[in-house]
Structure formats: C-alpha cells, structure tokens
Amino acid sequence: MTVASPKIEASSPHVMNTYGRLPIALDYGQGCRVWDVNGNCYLDALGGIAVNTLGHNHAKLVPALQDQISKIIHSCNYYHIPNQEALAKKLVELSGMSNVFFCSTGLEANEAALKLARKFGHDKGIERPEIVVYEKAFHGRSIATLSATGNPKIQAGFGPLVEGFIRVPINDIDSLKSATEGNPNVVAVFFEAIQGEGGVNLMRMDYLRELRTLCNKRDWLMMIDEVQCGMGRTGKWFAHQWADIVPDVMPLAKGLGSGVPVGAVVAGPRAAHIFQPGNHGTTFGGNPLAMRAGVETIRIMEEDGLLENAVRVGAHLSQGLAQALSAELASGAVREIRGQGLMIGVDLAKPCGALVQQCADNGLLISVTADTVIRLVPPLIMSEAEADEVIQILCPLVRQLLQVP
Fold this sequence. Notes:
By secondary structure, the protein is of the alpha/beta class. It is about 35% helix and about 20% strand. Strands 1-2-3-15 form a 4-stranded mixed sheet. The longest helix has 20 residues, at about 385-405.
C-alpha cells in the first residue's frame, strides 16, 4: 500500500512579516512553469514580478552562471570588472546613451537617479533642487524613493518624507507646466514609461515627446524609470523607445539579470559625468556574477528573438483576454485591458485581490495591483499556447468574481 506523503506547510515564522504571502513554497521551475514543495505545478504569469526574463532553468543561462560561479562570484569595485564594461557597452548600444552605473536593485537605481538630479541642480547653483514626479508612481521603499512614489498607503507611517518633489497627474502636459511655472528650482522630471505598481498605466507617446521637448527647453533631466517595463518587456528594449525619444537618465533592474539581482542607471550625455569618484557607490553592484547574468540575458534575448516574441505573444494574450471577457468589457464590469507586449493589466470595476489565491489554486500565478488591476508580466519566453492557458484559467475566475455581489 502506498502512503501519501504529508503536506509540507509553507511558513516562515522567523522571517519578518513584511509580505502578504500565499501558502506556497516554490521548489523548482522549468520554462514558464514552477513546482512547489508539495509537487503542485503552476503556470507562471508573474515571472517573479517581471524579473524572470528567460523563465526558469534556461538551458543557455544556467551553464553560463555555473561557469561564472566556478571562477569568481564577487569582486569589490576597487578593481576593474571586465563584464561591467561588456554589459555597460551593450546597454549604451541598445539605449543610445553614454555610460552606466551598476547596483543591485531597482530601488538603488532610482535612488541613484534622484542623487544625480540633485547634484545636477547643485552643480548649476540651485541650493534646493526639485523634481517633478507623478500620481500613482512607484519608485521604491527607501525614504527618498518612497517620497517620490505616489501612493499614500505605502507612505503612511514613515514621515516625514523627503522634500523636493512636485507631483502631477500623468499624460497632462498643461498640469505639469502649471505646477512648475516660474519655479527656477526644478531640475528633473522622473516617471515610469508604464506604471507597474500603479495599475499598468501607460504614458501616451505624444505626451512623452512633448515632455522631451519641454525638458530640453527648460534644461531639466528627463529620467525614465524602466525598472519594470524595460528589458524587452514591451517588445522594445525600453518602453520609451516606442515614442522615439532618448532620456537623460534611465534606471533599470528586474529583468536585466533573469533573476540574479542586477540594477543599473544608464546616463546620457547631459548626466554622464555628474557622478565623480566618491559621489556614489555600492558593495554588491556590478559584481562578476551579476554582470555575467546581465551579459548572458541580453545575448540570449537577441539569439532567441524574445523582443519579437513579447510583441507576438503579448498581442495574442491581450486579444484573447478581450475576446473572452467581451461581455464584461461591454457592461463595464471589466473597465479596460491595457498594456504593451507582455506587460498587461486587466482593470476590473471592483477589488480583485482574492483572485491571486484563486488563480494559484487553479495552477496560475498572477498578481493584483492598485486593488482592481490584474497584472500579467510572465517570462518573455511564454508561448501562444501558454498564453491560451492563462486565458482559460483566469477568465472564468474573473467572471465568477464579478458575479459575487
């Protein structure tokens, strides 16, 4: 007689309680699928929140990382690290910008961008520089990035916030002009090309072009946070490239290392030489393992055509969702399906946080952001067949949720 193995409980009693975790502990993955410690399989439509660019256990990435681990994992920045230059050169080539500072996370990249903007202002003789930021933005949870973030819920309890930010609504150039009119202290505009945590809200292409023109006219740095929407997720290397513009400062992270922590700040000519030795630094940023992960991630993305895949599969997934939820869209119960490439938000007319557990119970990993928006940011290797599975699992659960009073 076969005796069933007892279920392994997913709990972390000694870990600080900072996350609303599901009762799941993941054990291993392959492609766009992951398995938990009890053997349950899930289709991963979250990708570690837009991090696992190449999915799990990628046949080209794993041997490269194993090779690097066998050589050297960490070297401090007292010395040159060859793959820093290799990855920086590639990012400069892909972005049309000038140079790169490496760190480990998106928060660090955004913090460095804010420091760049302040020093840019001080170098011009501005004693109290101010930076334009946006409603519903999310830039991180340090005190400075939290202050730049446009979410009062996550700011609550951490005051006083850092001064020097002017907040405006997205896609409204007149509001921005009005909020900054006659203010000589403004030094930069800082925003996400697509707001991720804020609800998958897209900056319009015409707005981005108007903003680029305004920054040029007023000698402001245009700083675009591509931490979540960059690295091929929308079908171009960086989401702002759909507007055919180039920023002055561009923080990156998440998908840059396919799960290995890598952050970067890419700077254009106006910002490239603001930082000098002693102005900024990091212990782990740019270490050999992280840099190998970044170099290999980009190489594999190019070899395997993953930007094109993001466009094709993203369109297939968006269209399939719209078709499956056509009645709900018509009634207004689903307000909108929006996004670009493999960064998709399904905005419901009611809170939908319960869907995260319900989808997991049915073998699908998603997230909900801004209370009412289902966020889909799967690995960029996702196939159309796997996108169809997402639709088949998710849409009946959405309809079921919407029917509950």
